[in-house]
């Protein structure tokens, strides 16, 4: 039987009305205030013609108003396509078209992109400044959430190909929040700092946890290491989500100082983390929980507790309580511990599928198991190690080489700002690794010394056969490295940044 739960924000406002739900730019809101503001916004959205069962897209920054709008849409039962702010107008227009959204809710700060979108599409655009002027119309507040129903659609980052709209149900978000709490626990004084975008599952899942747990979110427009460090002290933040570039900047800014005792968890996700960074965090006593997850799993799926962070350095831990992980061979057969293969995942936080992509859904989700396209292995104790994307694997003389491992080593060099590795054809070995490196400003390092540095940490066959120095590397709107573009560079096609030797 289909499961239902009472409306989360309404329930929260009944259970803990006076508790602080959100802090944004030194203004705080209780759960009751959020419920009242979101209900008002829902009435105004209804006046603007948005109604239950429809699909609406949002292009909104990290801001308290955006939170009210997202909560309003959820309470109205409007499927919300949450768009990445950093996409170009063209990319946004494509996602609007692909998702069949009836309207785009945004704000005047995106004026430039909005006027370009207007040229490319006929979608109705509703800036919040206008919505907040509207009178309130009657609307149907969802008294119950059906766990199987889709509440949000988020596009994948488009690292391996075109972005895909991932369907996320109320149940996916509920189980994701439950799984996280069953892992890191829930304390009465918990406050979760959100300086990751709320348009990504990393940020949006913090909002969902806030509703489910009754926990305060300290929200920032964007990430600034100094401001975040001050915020942790000022608001007595206990948990924070970060990606590795943010963590690197935090560790640099911390210098010799330490994070306060009450800060208990730094959830690290989004991609691989260089081992050198994890070691620095251990030295500085930063409680890093490395995670593995994706848009399709509504945030973290597996997590490594800090007590294992040295013993199991580089691991993303074990699948959370409701979740399962298997590693399979190319023939689809489960492989034993220590053997490499594709990571497949199953659990109640896994998406029911991709929007308007039935074939891809069938291809990726089989018997409830999502085939992630990521390669990895489980060690003999059941800890997951994520190696890389299947599409980026380099096979050299019959040996598997994972570009992420080589990039991690290169990033550990003090003169290296950024690094990307791909395989290039080689008559003797089939393929060999080639590295693209961005030097730190003012740093002087040449190809042969970087290669000899790599020789110290990597087996000979993994050492890049060449280094191409470049001004920057191709990254997508989520700042993820686009190795497919590097392959074009190497093949001399479609170069956007001319690499310099
Ligand atoms: P697309 O699916 O369009 O190619 P994407 O996979 O980058 O884009 P996201 O859902 O944002 O889109 O990212 C999830 C991916 O990030 C995972 O499938 C995995 O490849 C990578 N990732 C997440 N956590 C880790 C980790 N701990 N170590 C290595 N890679 C990770
Ligand atoms: Mg993906």
Model description:
This protein has 501 residues and is an alpha/beta fold. It has 3 domains: 1-146, Rossmann fold; 170-391, ANL, N-terminal domain (Rossmann fold), CATH 3.40.50.12780; 393-490, ANL, C-terminal domain (GMP Synthetase, Chain A, domain 3). It has 15 helices and 27 strands. A 9-stranded mixed sheet has the order 3-2-12-11-13-14-15-16-17, with helices on both faces. The chain has a 6-stranded mixed sheet with strand order 7-6-4-5-9-10. The termini are far apart. The structure holds adenosine-5'-triphosphate and magnesium ion.
Short description:
The protein is α/β, with parallel strands linked by helices and 501 residues long.
Write the layout of secondary structure elements.
Elements: E1 4-6, H1 8-15, E2 20-24, E3 27-30, H2 31-47, E4 55-58, H3 64-76, E5 79-82, H4 89-99, E6 103-106, H5 111-120, E7 124-127, H6 128-131, E8 144-146, E9 150-155, E10 165-169, H7 170-184, E11 191-194, H8 201-213, E12 216-219, H9 225-235, E13 239-242, H10 244-254, E14 265-268, H11 275-283, E15 288-294, E16 299-304, E17 318-319, E18 324-328, E19 341-346, H12 358-364, E20 365-366, E21 369-378, E22 384-389, E23 394-396, E24 399-401, H13 403-411, E25 416-426, E26 430-439, H14 447-457, E27 466-469, H15 483-490
Parallel strand pairs: 2-12, 4-5, 4-6, 5-9, 6-7, 11-12, 11-13, 13-14, 14-15, 26-27
Antiparallel strand pairs: 1-8, 2-3, 9-10, 15-16, 16-17, 18-19, 19-21, 20-21, 21-22, 23-24, 25-26
The chain binds adenosine-5'-triphosphate and magnesium ion (MG).
């Amino acid at each position: 039987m289909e499961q239902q739960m009472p409306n989360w924000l309404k329930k929260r406002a009944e259970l803990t009305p006076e508790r602080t739900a959100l802090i944004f730019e030194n203004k705080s809101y209780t759960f009751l205030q959020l419920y009242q503001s979101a209900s008002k916004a829902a009435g105004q959205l209804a006046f603007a013609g948005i109604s239950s069962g429809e699909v609406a897209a949002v292009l909104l920054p990290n801001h308290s108003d955006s939170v009210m709008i997202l909560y309003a849409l959820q309470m109205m039962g409007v499927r919300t396509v949450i768009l990445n702010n950093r996409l170009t107008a063209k990319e946004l227009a494509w996602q609007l078209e692909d998702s069949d959204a009836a309207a785009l809710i945004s704000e005047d700060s995106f004026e430039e992109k909005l006027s370009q979108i207007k040229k490319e599409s006929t979608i109705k655009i509703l800036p919040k400044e206008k919505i907040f002027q509207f009178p309130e119309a009657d609307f149907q507040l969802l008294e119950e959430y059906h766990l199987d129903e889709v509440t949000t659609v988020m596009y994948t980052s488009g690292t391996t190909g075109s972005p895909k709209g991932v369907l996320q149900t109320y149940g996916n978000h509920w189980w994701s929040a439950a799984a996280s709490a069953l892992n890191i626990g829930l304390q009465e004084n918990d406050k979760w700092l959100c300086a990751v975008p709320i348009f990504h599952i990393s940020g949006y899942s913090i909002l969902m946890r806030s509703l489910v747990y009754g926990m305060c979110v300290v929200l920032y427009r964007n990430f600034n290491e100094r401001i975040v460090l001050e915020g942790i002290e000022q608001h007595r933040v206990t948990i924070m989500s970060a990606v590795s570039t943010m963590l690197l900047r935090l560790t640099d800014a911390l210098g010799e100082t330490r994070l306060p005792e009450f800060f208990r968890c730094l959830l690290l996700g989004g991609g691989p983390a260089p081992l050198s960074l994890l070691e620095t965090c251990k030295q500085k006593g930063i409680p890093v929980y490395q995670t593995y997850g994706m848009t399709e799993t509504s945030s973290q799926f597996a997590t490594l507790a800090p007590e294992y962070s040295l013993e199991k350095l580089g691991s993303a831990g074990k699948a959370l309580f409701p979740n399962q992980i298997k590693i399979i061979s190319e023939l689809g057969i489960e492989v034993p511990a220590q053997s490499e293969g594709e990571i497949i995942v199953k659990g109640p936080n896994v998406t029911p599928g991709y929007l308007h992509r039935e074939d891809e859904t069938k291809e990726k989700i089989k018997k409830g198991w999502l085939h992630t396209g990521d390669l990895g292995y489980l060690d003999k104790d059941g800890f997951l190690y994520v190696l890389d994307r299947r599409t980026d694997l380099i096979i050299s003389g019959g040996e598997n080489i994972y570009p992420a491992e080589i990039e991690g080593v290169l990033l550990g060099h003090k003169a290296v700002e950024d690094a990307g590795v791909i395989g290039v054809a080689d008559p003797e070995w089939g393929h060999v690794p080639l590295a693209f490196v961005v030097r730190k400003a003012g740093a002087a390092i040449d190809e042969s010394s970087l290669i000899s540095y790599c020789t110290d940490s990597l087996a000979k066959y993994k050492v890049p056969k060449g280094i191409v120095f470049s001004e920057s590397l191709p990254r997508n709107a989520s700042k993820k490295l686009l190795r497919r573009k590097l392959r074009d560079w190497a093949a001399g096609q479609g170069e956007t940044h001319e690499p310099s030797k």
